[in-house]
Amino acid sequence: MLFVHGRDDVYFSKIGIEEGLSQLSVMTIYQDELGSMWFGTREGLNIYDGNRITILQPTGESENALSGNLIKEIQGNAQGLVFIHTQNGIDQYDLKTGTITHIVTIQVNAMSYGNNRLWYAKDNRIFHVSNGQSIFFSEIDSDAQISAILSVSGNRLYVGTITSGIFVIDQNKNIERLLPHCSRVASLFEDSEKNVWVSTWENGAYMITPDHAIVNYRRYRKDPADGLSSD
After folding, report:
1. Dihedral, CA of residue 198, residue 93, residue 55 and residue 36, to nearest 10
2. pTM, 2 dp
3. Cα–Cα distances in angstroms (integers) from residue 173 to residues 92, 113, 157, 167, in the given order
4. Number of structural domains, the chain?
5. Do 97 and 120 have their domain in common?
6. What is the C-alpha to C-alpha distance for residues 147 and 220, in angstroms, rounded to an integer?
7. Residue 155 belongs to a domain
8. CA-wise closest residue to 139 among 127, 126, 120, 128
9. Residue numbers of the domain that contains 38
10. Residue 81 in contact with residue 96, Cβ under 8 Å?
11. Residue 44: which of 31, 54, 57 has the closest Cα?
């Protein structure tokens, strides 16, 4: 007996300068609840609705414009608001009205939206935004420099740093330190199984399970087929 399994064909199309992208160095990607793709570049924000690209950039003294050209992170609340981390702060874009509000007007290290709150980090301190105001939440080691934060289920924050590893902060502000020797954390991500993935510049990638078991994925020089292509 022969079983034939159908396969969905996958097609790729390129979006570049010729298609209207403002710049080729894409720093971050986000998809909103309407299906549009947001691309953050070094020269502005690009919104692709499947047909055309709309570019948002700072425009002189206009209040309804981005605070900066370098787009570091894009996240949203799936209820009409998109948050954009630029080199000059954090902007809020309203999908219904098209208005931009500068909600954090200082340079910040990292941003995360989760559990109905917008979080951001400045140096070694963590804040959340409430009614347009920045509220101090917690701080980690004084010599730590935060490079990434992630708000996950269970009202916890994962905090990645340049030289001090990973910190986990619960809603009661209890702090647990993980991977103290991990350096240069680049980004954090929670998957559908509630594992937190950590990407770094020098130590490969880590997977942290909900009970804090840790798996490290690195480049294996003797058998590159079984490891990452680069750390």
Report:
1. 70
2. 0.87
3. 27, 18, 10, 11
4. 2
5. no
6. 26
7. yes
8. 126
9. 13-103
10. no
11. 57
